[in-house]
From TrEMBL:
Name the UniProt record assigns to this protein: Alkaline phosphatase
Pfam families assigned: Alk_phosphatase
Keyword tags: Hydrolase, Magnesium, Metal-binding, Phosphoprotein, Signal, Zinc
Cofactor: Zn(2+); Mg(2+)
Domain of life, per lineage: Bacteria
Entries under PROSITE patterns matching the protein: ALKALINE_PHOSPHATASE (PS00123)
Length: 437
């Protein structure tokens, strides 16, 4: 309904323009240029994720289905296909390259073109224009999405090589996981260059000035579902905003809900909804910042969808997210605990929020004997059955993704577009480069 209304408004707005197609744009009608830009990427967050999240958050005690932050900010859709050589279904590297540079490339490319030549990234452009830059993510900071905003490499898999380039990015804020990719000598280099190097999440609060390299896990941060009260991504986001906004010229910040995708790859609806909740919370942090700083543009999208998530499955017209509300952790963590304990039936039942009858007990016990991975799978299958959730693949799918925006210039993102258009629109809104001295 809301999307329809937006489309109608969009059509109405564009009508006078098409009538006077030859006339120059009225400068007063042109969108104001934002000073600050926050681009937020829900990795793997296709339309079925934001829809599932709405029902996951619905208060069953009220007649109405409550709106989410996604319903509130929706403005358009974007296609995600990579360069021709990689077909129609993108990976995160090609999609992030498109969103960061405005050019399509092959799956696996980190801001290089199909001939492996570097493409200027959004954060590099921001630096050239005197803006501050940052990334705040829940994966390792050198994973595909943040890497395509900070670096260039012919393969996303070259984690060490990508990490080694970060010292030269001049980024003001780099927050996420990935300690294992930054050796002590590398960390010392950052310190020598004036960075505060953090490895403990509790250190973040005391930081009051850029620059900062925060690596809060060996690889990725923990599943939100295991510690929802910590709100790690929200905290990283709000600290990034606080630090970057000290630059009077403005800033460009990338925030990624990285592990929505990992929940999708694992076909884990519980973990995926936990990550969605934390990403939504982080969006609300930025939305509040935009309210207080009307010169800030926020644009949110996904790089692709993952897992072929379906709300309803097996021919049944039902979906039961309330099953997930009783869970007190991720299936992975529950399985690890059950494998480590001989007396696992009662504790697992308590964490899942439903009784484990004899039939399910034998099924879980067979899986448990095979180890954590098999038990995690068995738990996820049981949750899929009870929620009536469907999946078609452990990989990505090629559906279009949604675009959400608020702030000056946000009207440019209304309607249908390509992922490269998102980058080109953001780049066109960035302040002009400072005159060379
Ligand atoms: Zn993925």
């Amino acid at each position: 309904m809301k999307f329809k209304q937006l489309c109608l408004i969009a059509v109405a707005c564009w009508l006078p323009l098409s009538t006077y197609a030859e006339a120059p744009l009225n400068p007063t009608a042109a969108p104001a240029r934002p000073k600050n830009i926050v681009i937020m990427i829900g990795d793997g967050m296709g339309p079925s994720y934001t829809t599932a999240y709405r029902y996951y958050k619905d208060n069953p005690d009220t007649e109405e289905i409550e709106q989410t932050v996604f319903d509130r900010l929706l403005v358009g859709m974007a296609s995600t296909y990579p360069a021709n050589v990689s077909g129609y279904v993108t990976d995160s590297a090609a999609a992030a390259t498109a969103l960061s540079t405005g050019f399509k490339s092959y799956n696996g490319a980190i801001s290089v073109d199909v001939n492996k030549r570097p493409l200027t990234t959004m954060l590099e452009r921001a630096k050239q224009r005197g803006l501050s830059t940052g990334v705040a993510v829940t994966c390792q900071v050198n994973h595909a999405t943040p890497a395509a905003f900070l670096s260039h490499d012919e393969s996303r898999k070259n984690y060490d090589a990508i990490a080694a380039t970060y010292i030269n990015t001049d980024a003001d804020v780099i927050l996420g996981g990935g300690q294992k990719y930054f050796t002590q000598p590398m960390r010392d280099e950052f310190t020598a260059k004036g960075y505060q190097v953090l490895t403990d999440f509790s250190q973040l609060d005391a930081v009051s000035q850029p620059k900062v390299l925060g690596l809060f896990a060996d690889v990725q941060l923990p599943w939100s579902l295991d510690e929802p009260e910590v709100h790690r991504l929200s905290q990283l986001t709000s600290k990034s905003l606080e630090l970057l906004s000290q630059n009077q010229q403005g800033f460009v910040l990338l925030v990624e809900g990285s592990q929505i995708d990992w929940g999708g790859h694992a076909n884990d609806i519980a973990a995926a909804m936990g990550e969605m909740d934390e990403f939504a919370h982080s969006i609300e942090v930025v939305e509040q910042f935009v309210r207080n700083h009307p010169d800030t543009l926020m644009v949110i999208t996904a790089d692709h969808s993952t897992g072929g998530l379906s709300i309803g499955a097996n021919g049944k017209y039902e979906w039961h997210p309330e099953v997930l509300h009783k869970m007190t952790g991720s299936p992975e963590t529950m399985a690890a605990q059950a494998v480590a304990n001989e007396q696992w039936r009662e504790p697992l039942s308590a964490s899942l929020g439903f009784a484990i009858d004899d039939e399910l007990y034998s099924k879980f016990e067979v899986a448990r004997m095979q180890g954590k991975k098999a038990l995690t799978t068995a738990i996820k299958q049981e949750i899929d059955l009870r929620t009536n959730t469907g999946w078609t693949t452990p990989g990505h799918t090629g559906v279009d993704v949604q675009v959400f925006a608020a702030g000056p210039g946000s009207e440019l993102f209304i309607g249908s577009q390509d992922n490269t258009d998102i980058a080109n629109k953001i780049i066109s809104l960035m302040p002009k480069a400072k005159a060379a001295k």
